[in-house]
Amino acid sequence: MPGLLRGVARTAVVAGTATAVSNRVSRRQGNRWAGQQQAQAAPEPQYAEPAGPPRTDTNTKLAQLRELAQLRDSGVLDSAEFELQKSQILNS
């Protein structure tokens, strides 16, 4: 009987040690994986849009310039007003 108790006690010690080591390894791996997931899930930096009004496309600018030229040709705008409006359209 003493040999049986000694064997059971030894098995309990080995099993307890194995369980403690296994739990420690699992926690360490879990922390490592959580760190990797956070690094992968980190959002990329967002860059601000340039200040000022939104840019218009070339076709829109051409249409505005044609309308402006028609107004100048019909006498609604003089040459100074035409140049001012034209520069605003081209710089937008």
Automatic annotation (TrEMBL):
Specify the SHOCT domain's residue ranges: 63-90
The ranges of region (Disordered) come to 22-58
Compositional bias, Low complexity, is annotated for: 34-50
UniProt protein name: Short C-terminal domain-containing protein
Natural source organism = Geodermatophilus sabuli
